[in-house]
C-alpha cells in the first residue's frame, strides 16, 4: 500500500497553490513525498505554503505565473526545461458572479483564459514535453458545469464544462502514451474564497445569493460543506498508482449534491 500511494522521486506541479484546494493539494502531495512546483499569481500566499510543506523534507519551488497569459505559460515551461513535472494538477480558477446580460467580451475572454485556455496550454506543454515518458494530469472542473445552481455564473459554467471535454478528449488520445488524465468535479467546498464570498453576500444582504446558499446546503445529502482537504485527498489518489487503471474519468467530489 505504501508503494502505491508514495510519490517519492516524483515532481508535482500544482496551479493556484496559494489558496484553497490547490494549497491543500500541495500539502497532501508533499506528504506523499513529491517535490513541488507551485504556481500562483499570489507569491506571498505561495511563500506560506512553501514554509508549511518544509516539514515533509521535499523540495518546493514557487513561480509567479499569470495563467491568463499564454506567453507567461510558455515562459514558465521554458524556465523548467529538463525538469518537467511527472504530475500536473490544473487547479487555478476564478468564480466571479456576473449577470449574463451584462457580460462583455473582455470579461468573458478573461474567464475563459484563466479557467479553460490555461489548462489547455498547460496540458499541451506537459504532454509535448513527456511524450516518451507519460505522466499524470488532474484537472479541476466544477459541479456548476453539469448542474447550474448558483445565479450569474453562465460564463463560469461554460469554462468548466470545457475542462471536462478537454480531459476526456486528451485521455482518449494520449493514455496509450503512458498518460493518465482525469478531472475532478468539486462542489460545495468551503475554501477561503468561498468564505469571503459568503461574508460579502451577508454584508451586502444579497437576498438572491443568500437564498441560493441556503437551498444549496439543504439539498446536500451529506448535510455539510466540504473541506479543501477532502478534494486534495481524491487528487492524491488520482496522482498516485492507487489509480493506475483510471484515465478519462470525471470524479465528482460534492457531498452527493449532483445525485439529488
Ligand atoms: P481559491 O480562490 O481559494 O484559489 C484559487 C487560486 O488560484 C488562488 O490562489 C488564486 O490566486 C489563483 N489564481 C487565480 N487566478 C490566477 C491566474 N490568472 N494565474 C495564476 N493563479 C491564479 O479557489 P478554490 O475555491 O480553492 O478553487 C480551486 C478550483 O476549484 C477552481 O478551479 C474552482 O473553480 C474549483 N472549484 C471550487 C469549488 C469550491 O466550492 N470551492 C467548487 C467547484 C470548483
Question: What this model shows, in words?
Answer:
With 260 residues, the protein is an alpha/beta fold. The protein has one domain: Rossmann fold. It contains 9 helices and 7 strands. The protein has helices at 2-5, 20-31, 43-53, 70-79, 105-129, 154-174, 192-203, 207-219, 228-239; strands at residues 11-15, 35-40, 60-64, 87-90, 135-140, 179-186, 250-253. The chain has a 7-stranded parallel sheet with strand order 3-2-1-4-5-6-7, sandwiched between helices. Helix 2 links the parallel strand 1 (11-15) and strand 2 (35-40). The protein is globular and about 50 Å long. The model has no long low-confidence stretch (mean pLDDT 96). 1,4-dihydronicotinamide adenine dinucleotide binds at residues 16, 18-22, 40-42, 45, 65-68, 91-95, 114, 140, 142, 186-189, 191-194. 1,4-dihydronicotinamide adenine dinucleotide (NAI) binds next to helix 2 and helix 7.
Topology of this structure?
Elements: H1 2-5, E1 11-15, H2 20-31, E2 35-40, H3 43-53, E3 60-64, H4 70-79, E4 87-90, H5 105-129, E5 135-140, H6 154-174, E6 179-186, H7 192-203, H8 207-219, H9 228-239, E7 250-253
Parallel strand pairs: 1-2, 1-4, 2-3, 4-5, 5-6, 6-7
Helix pairs in contact: 2-3, 2-9, 4-5, 5-6
1,4-dihydronicotinamide adenine dinucleotide binds next to helix 2 and helix 7.
Amino acid at each position: 500500500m505504501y508503494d502505491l500511494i508514495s510519490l517519492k522521486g516524483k515532481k508535482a506541479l500544482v496551479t493556484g497553490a496559494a489558496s484553497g484546494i490547490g494549497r491543500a493539494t500541495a500539502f497532501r502531495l508533499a506528504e506523499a513525498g513529491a517535490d513541488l512546483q507551485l504556481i500562483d499569481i499570489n507569491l506571498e500566499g505561495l511563500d506560506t505554503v512553501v514554509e508549511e510543506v518544509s516539514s515533509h523534507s521535499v523540495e518546493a519551488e514557487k513561480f509567479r505565473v499569470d495563467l491568463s497569459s499564454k506567453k507567461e505559460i510558455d515562459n514558465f515551461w521554458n524556465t523548467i526545461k529538463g525538469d518537467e513535472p511527472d504530475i500536473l494538477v490544473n487547479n487555478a480558477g476564478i468564480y466571479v458572479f456576473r449577470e449574463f446580460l451584462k457580460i462583455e467580451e473582455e470579461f468573458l475572454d478573461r474567464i475563459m483564459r484563466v479557467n479553460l485556455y490555461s489548462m489547455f496550454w498547460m496540458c499541451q506543454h506537459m504532454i509535448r514535453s513527456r511524450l516518451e515518458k507519460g505522466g499524470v494530469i488532474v484537472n479541476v472542473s466544477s459541479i456548476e458545469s453539469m448542474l447550474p445552481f448558483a445565479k450569474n455564473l453562465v460564463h463560469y459554467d461554460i469554462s468548466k464544462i470545457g475542462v471536462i471535454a478537454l480531459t476526456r478528449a486528451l485521455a482518449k488520445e494520449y493514455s496509450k502514451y503512458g498518460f493518465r488524465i482525469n478531472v475532478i468535479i468539486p462542489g460545495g467546498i468551503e475554501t477561503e474564497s468561498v468564505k469571503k464570498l459568503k461574508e460579502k453576500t451577508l454584508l451586502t444582504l444579497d437576498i438572491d445569493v443568500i437564498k441560493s446558499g441556503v437551498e444549496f446546503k439543504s439539498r446536500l445529502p451529506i448535510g455539510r460543506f466540504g473541506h479543501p482537504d477532502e478534494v486534495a485527498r481524491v487528487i492524491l489518489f488520482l496522482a498516485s498508482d492507487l489509480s493506475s487503471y483510471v484515465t478519462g474519468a470525471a470524479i465528482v467530489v460534492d457531498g452527493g449534491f449532483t445525485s439529488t
